[in-house]
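A quick aside before the break. I want you to see a complete sequence-to-structure record at least once, exactly as it would be stored in a machine-readable document. Don't worry about memorizing anything.
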Amino acid sequence: MNSAGRSSVVSDVTSASIDGEALHQLVAAVQRGDRPAADRLVRDHDSWVRSVIYGVTGRAELVEDVAQQVWAQVWQRLGSLKDPQRLRPWLYRVARHAALDASIARRRNRTRTGKLEQAGDVPDDEWLASPVQAVAQGELRTSLLRAVEGLPALYREPFVLRHLEDWSYAEIGQLLDLPVETVETRLVRARRLLREALSGQAQV
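That is the input. The structure line, written in tokens, reads:
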């Protein structure tokens, strides 16, 4: 390895160490009850947590309520997190379980009432702020929302992380505990299903 390569590796390691220490200090501060630190934790992670919830449920109107439940659980259980470096996968598990519970409860409620909600009937202020929002406007918005909701969760979870949060394949694979090749395959399949569902109305 030449000197430039060694310098790059050292720089990456140093950056990772700094980031890791900062995360450790942030989590420790939150565990001590530091409110500004808690606010910072939410700012740093709330967006992708909401994307996970949407990826699991496929329902934009459930995101706000479930996100509030997730953060309530986080504050109750964060003291049990021994390794701050595991914060993101730990948050993912909390969010995913809460989203699954919400999906099950919603299905049970629909069975009892016999009322089916109209896909895409979501107020604008409840839609997720994301890169996809700019695309899903006007006539295409409802069609795209319905198509994303119709994706199997297997494909929807990586899709929303990639296209709502702009995560890399490696980041998605790390969070979902999947090889990068599997992430790529699922994203290809998700895009193909969306193209078919949209019937040429939008390119994904």
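Two observations worth writing down. Residues 3-31 form the longest helix (29 residues). The radius of gyration is 19 Å. We'll return to this after the break.
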